[in-house]
Amino acid sequence: MTASREEFEARLRQIGAERYHDKHPFHHLLHSGGCTPDQVRAWVINRYYYQSRIPMKDAAFMSRVEDPALRRAWRSRIEDHDGRDGNEGGIRRWLRLAEAVGLNADYVASAQGVLPATRFAVDAYVRFVRDKTLLEAVAASLTELFAPKIHAARIEGLLANYAFADDSSLSYFRNRLTEAPKDVAFGLEWVLDHADTAEKQDAAANALIFKTDVLWSQLDALHSAYVDPARIPPGAWQPGTGLMAQAAE
Predict the structure, then answer these.
(1) What's the domain count of the chain?
(2) Is residue 164 within a helix (H) or strand (E), and if so which, with residue range?
(3) So what EC number does this one have (predicted)?
(4) pLDDT range class, residue 224, cuts 50, 70, 90
(5) What phi-psi label fits residue 242: left (phi over 0), alpha (psi between -120 and 50 degrees) or beta?
């Protein structure tokens, strides 16, 4: 039986309440000031891989969209990350955070030290958006419903607990406080409009669950590798490498 718009929106929001990665132990460790400098660096390196693939994911999505209105609405997401005149973009802001924690930005951008599980999860998300229905692709982006809360908590927690945190290093998160609500308002309305059968509602809900799994698995990988340093897999970032010269001295 097809749920009403209100019932279906409540179902989507409940997925976030139960499965969003703000409940992960690594999230709490980071925001409470419990991470070592190297654990923060590992998070920055691995999260960069996710950030860098978001515009690639969105470009793959747009390549399949025939409706010009949907393409116009969606393309600002690419500009938010890649930048445009007067906006350096989220990727550059993330690399500024990398420099603030003592990492060499070129090393981070190379993705050489990314954990295998991070790479597999993020690449799976790009493929999901490229290959699944447009409805499922848009629904997967609806983790943005829950993002402003985690960004606000992250700003507060990092400022309170880490010397590197200031307006410059945290500018990525501050910008997302205004960018994400704009994106999700459109995406949520689009999903509610197009998930007009019980089967489509199930597909959209499962797509959102898939995306929460992608985010959760990234923190699982970080916690496994760097909270217990003996479990860093071959090829992943090793503490003491990839640092700015002054941090290495």
Answers:
(1) 1
(2) none
(3) 1.3.3.11
(4) very high
(5) left
